[in-house]
Known about the structure:
Layout: H1 3-6, E1 19-20, E2 28-31, H2 35-52, E3 67-72, H3 84-87, H4 91-101, E4 105-111, E5 117-125, H5 128-131, H6 135-147, E6 161-164, E7 167-170, H7 172-181, E8 189-190, H8 194-206
Parallel strand pairs: 2-3, 3-5
Antiparallel strand pairs: 1-8, 4-5, 6-7
Helix pairs in contact: 2-6, 7-8
Amino acid sequence: MSPADITPLFTRSDGSYFFARWGRPIVPVVFGVEDETLSVVKGAFEALCALTGHKMAETDAESGTNVMVFFFREWSELTSIPDLDRLVEGLAEKLDVLDAQGANQYRSFRFDAEGAIQACFIFLRMDDALSRIPAEELALGQVTQAMVCWSDLAFQTRSPLAKAGQTVVLRPDIAAVLRAAYDPVMPATAQDDSHALRLFARVQACG
Protein backbone atom coordinates (compact mmCIF):
# COMPACT_ATOMS: atom_id res chain seq x y z
CA MET A 1 0.00 0.00 0.00
CA SER A 2 0.98 3.62 -0.50
CA PRO A 3 -0.30 6.82 1.15
CA ALA A 4 -2.27 7.38 -2.04
CA ASP A 5 -4.13 4.13 -1.35
CA ILE A 6 -4.90 5.03 2.25
CA THR A 7 -5.94 8.68 1.88
CA PRO A 8 -9.16 7.97 -0.10
CA LEU A 9 -10.32 5.57 2.60
CA PHE A 10 -10.92 8.55 4.90
CA THR A 11 -11.56 11.36 2.39
CA ARG A 12 -15.26 12.06 2.27
CA SER A 13 -17.37 13.01 -0.74
CA ASP A 14 -17.18 16.69 0.29
CA GLY A 15 -13.37 16.53 0.10
CA SER A 16 -12.76 16.62 3.85
CA TYR A 17 -10.52 14.11 5.63
CA PHE A 18 -11.93 12.51 8.74
CA PHE A 19 -10.80 9.54 10.81
CA ALA A 20 -11.96 8.27 14.19
CA ARG A 21 -11.55 5.00 16.07
CA TRP A 22 -13.12 3.70 19.25
CA GLY A 23 -11.96 5.29 22.48
CA ARG A 24 -13.61 2.78 24.81
CA PRO A 25 -14.31 -0.97 24.91
CA ILE A 26 -17.04 -2.11 22.52
CA VAL A 27 -20.29 -3.45 23.98
CA PRO A 28 -22.63 -4.63 21.20
CA VAL A 29 -26.28 -5.62 21.30
CA VAL A 30 -28.25 -7.00 18.36
CA PHE A 31 -32.00 -6.69 17.72
CA GLY A 32 -34.30 -8.54 15.34
CA VAL A 33 -32.42 -11.83 14.89
CA GLU A 34 -32.31 -15.28 16.42
CA ASP A 35 -29.60 -16.30 18.88
CA GLU A 36 -27.58 -18.03 16.14
CA THR A 37 -27.17 -14.80 14.16
CA LEU A 38 -26.55 -12.87 17.36
CA SER A 39 -23.52 -15.04 18.09
CA VAL A 40 -22.27 -14.53 14.53
CA VAL A 41 -22.39 -10.74 14.88
CA LYS A 42 -20.70 -10.77 18.27
CA GLY A 43 -18.12 -13.20 16.90
CA ALA A 44 -17.29 -10.69 14.16
CA PHE A 45 -16.72 -7.98 16.78
CA GLU A 46 -14.48 -10.35 18.74
CA ALA A 47 -12.46 -11.15 15.61
CA LEU A 48 -11.93 -7.49 14.70
CA CYS A 49 -11.03 -6.58 18.26
CA ALA A 50 -8.48 -9.41 18.28
CA LEU A 51 -7.06 -8.09 15.01
CA THR A 52 -6.73 -4.50 16.22
CA GLY A 53 -5.89 -5.15 19.87
CA HIS A 54 -9.00 -3.26 20.94
CA LYS A 55 -11.19 -4.49 23.79
CA MET A 56 -14.76 -5.58 24.29
CA ALA A 57 -16.65 -5.42 27.58
CA GLU A 58 -19.84 -6.69 29.18
CA THR A 59 -21.21 -3.22 29.81
CA ASP A 60 -20.54 0.44 29.03
CA ALA A 61 -20.32 2.69 32.08
CA GLU A 62 -22.43 5.44 30.50
CA SER A 63 -25.07 3.64 28.46
CA GLY A 64 -24.82 -0.08 29.12
CA THR A 65 -24.26 -0.84 25.44
CA ASN A 66 -22.57 1.32 22.82
CA VAL A 67 -23.16 -0.58 19.58
CA MET A 68 -26.73 -1.31 18.54
CA VAL A 69 -27.34 -3.44 15.46
CA PHE A 70 -30.91 -3.51 14.13
CA PHE A 71 -32.22 -6.05 11.61
CA PHE A 72 -35.65 -5.29 10.13
CA ARG A 73 -37.75 -5.43 6.95
CA GLU A 74 -38.99 -1.85 6.54
CA TRP A 75 -37.55 1.49 7.65
CA SER A 76 -40.94 2.42 9.14
CA GLU A 77 -40.50 -0.31 11.78
CA LEU A 78 -37.88 1.82 13.52
CA THR A 79 -40.39 4.54 14.36
CA SER A 80 -41.99 2.21 16.93
CA ILE A 81 -38.78 1.71 18.94
CA PRO A 82 -39.01 3.84 22.11
CA ASP A 83 -36.45 6.64 22.48
CA LEU A 84 -34.48 5.63 19.38
CA ASP A 85 -34.86 9.16 18.06
CA ARG A 86 -33.08 10.38 21.22
CA LEU A 87 -30.09 8.15 20.48
CA VAL A 88 -29.81 9.05 16.79
CA GLU A 89 -30.33 12.75 16.16
CA GLY A 90 -32.61 13.54 13.23
CA LEU A 91 -33.56 9.90 12.76
CA ALA A 92 -37.18 10.54 11.73
CA GLU A 93 -36.15 12.78 8.83
CA LYS A 94 -33.35 10.41 7.88
CA LEU A 95 -35.73 7.44 7.73
CA ASP A 96 -37.84 9.23 5.12
CA VAL A 97 -34.74 9.81 2.98
CA LEU A 98 -33.50 6.24 3.36
CA ASP A 99 -36.92 4.87 2.48
CA ALA A 100 -37.20 7.09 -0.60
CA GLN A 101 -33.72 6.02 -1.73
CA GLY A 102 -34.50 2.33 -1.26
CA ALA A 103 -31.44 2.06 1.01
CA ASN A 104 -30.79 -1.18 2.82
CA GLN A 105 -28.24 -0.01 5.39
CA TYR A 106 -27.22 3.00 7.45
CA ARG A 107 -24.65 3.65 10.17
CA SER A 108 -24.62 6.51 12.64
CA PHE A 109 -21.77 7.35 15.03
CA ARG A 110 -21.53 9.40 18.21
CA PHE A 111 -18.24 10.81 19.46
CA ASP A 112 -16.81 11.71 22.85
CA ALA A 113 -15.24 15.03 23.84
CA GLU A 114 -11.87 13.96 22.39
CA GLY A 115 -13.41 12.97 19.05
CA ALA A 116 -13.12 9.19 19.47
CA ILE A 117 -16.07 6.94 18.66
CA GLN A 118 -18.40 6.70 21.63
CA ALA A 119 -21.32 4.79 20.09
CA CYS A 120 -22.42 3.29 16.78
CA PHE A 121 -25.88 2.44 15.47
CA ILE A 122 -26.13 0.00 12.56
CA PHE A 123 -29.42 -0.33 10.68
CA LEU A 124 -29.91 -3.19 8.20
CA ARG A 125 -33.08 -3.42 6.14
CA MET A 126 -33.11 -7.05 5.06
CA ASP A 127 -34.20 -6.68 1.45
CA ASP A 128 -33.52 -9.36 -1.16
CA ALA A 129 -29.92 -8.19 -1.68
CA LEU A 130 -28.91 -8.32 2.00
CA SER A 131 -30.90 -11.50 2.62
CA ARG A 132 -28.80 -13.33 0.01
CA ILE A 133 -25.56 -12.55 1.87
CA PRO A 134 -24.45 -15.28 4.32
CA ALA A 135 -24.69 -14.15 7.94
CA GLU A 136 -20.92 -14.45 8.55
CA GLU A 137 -20.12 -12.30 5.53
CA LEU A 138 -22.74 -9.68 6.35
CA ALA A 139 -21.58 -9.46 9.96
CA LEU A 140 -17.89 -9.15 9.07
CA GLY A 141 -18.57 -6.43 6.54
CA GLN A 142 -20.72 -4.41 8.89
CA VAL A 143 -18.37 -4.71 11.85
CA THR A 144 -15.42 -3.69 9.66
CA GLN A 145 -17.30 -0.50 8.79
CA ALA A 146 -18.06 0.14 12.46
CA MET A 147 -14.47 -0.19 13.75
CA VAL A 148 -13.40 3.20 12.37
CA CYS A 149 -15.07 6.06 10.52
CA TRP A 150 -14.31 5.32 6.90
CA SER A 151 -15.10 7.66 4.03
CA ASP A 152 -18.65 7.42 2.70
CA LEU A 153 -16.99 6.51 -0.61
CA ALA A 154 -14.49 3.96 0.74
CA PHE A 155 -16.33 0.79 -0.22
CA GLN A 156 -18.71 1.95 -2.92
CA THR A 157 -16.86 0.18 -5.71
CA ARG A 158 -14.95 -2.50 -3.80
CA SER A 159 -15.92 -4.46 -0.70
CA PRO A 160 -13.63 -4.52 2.35
CA LEU A 161 -13.91 -8.31 2.14
CA ALA A 162 -12.33 -10.88 -0.17
CA LYS A 163 -12.57 -14.61 -0.78
CA ALA A 164 -9.89 -17.01 0.38
CA GLY A 165 -10.99 -20.24 -1.22
CA GLN A 166 -14.55 -20.75 -0.05
CA THR A 167 -14.12 -18.47 2.97
CA VAL A 168 -14.84 -14.75 3.04
CA VAL A 169 -12.16 -12.80 4.91
CA LEU A 170 -11.11 -9.22 5.49
CA ARG A 171 -8.98 -7.87 2.65
CA PRO A 172 -5.31 -7.89 3.75
CA ASP A 173 -4.86 -4.19 2.96
CA ILE A 174 -7.91 -3.22 5.01
CA ALA A 175 -6.77 -5.47 7.87
CA ALA A 176 -3.37 -3.75 7.78
CA VAL A 177 -4.96 -0.29 7.93
CA LEU A 178 -7.13 -1.31 10.89
CA ARG A 179 -4.18 -2.72 12.80
CA ALA A 180 -2.20 0.46 12.15
CA ALA A 181 -5.15 2.68 13.09
CA TYR A 182 -5.36 1.08 16.53
CA ASP A 183 -1.65 1.26 17.22
CA PRO A 184 -1.29 3.07 20.58
CA VAL A 185 0.98 5.70 19.03
CA MET A 186 -1.75 6.77 16.59
CA PRO A 187 -4.36 9.41 17.46
CA ALA A 188 -7.97 8.41 18.11
CA THR A 189 -9.19 10.99 15.59
CA ALA A 190 -7.74 13.10 12.78
CA GLN A 191 -8.99 15.67 10.29
CA ASP A 192 -5.81 16.26 8.27
CA ASP A 193 -4.69 13.97 5.47
CA SER A 194 -1.18 13.89 6.92
CA HIS A 195 -2.74 11.24 9.14
CA ALA A 196 -2.71 8.91 6.11
CA LEU A 197 1.08 9.26 5.96
CA ARG A 198 1.31 8.22 9.60
CA LEU A 199 -1.00 5.27 8.93
CA PHE A 200 1.20 4.25 6.00
CA ALA A 201 4.27 4.37 8.22
CA ARG A 202 2.58 2.15 10.81
CA VAL A 203 1.43 -0.31 8.13
CA GLN A 204 5.04 -0.56 6.95
CA ALA A 205 6.35 -0.97 10.50
CA CYS A 206 3.81 -3.65 11.36
CA GLY A 207 4.08 -5.44 8.04
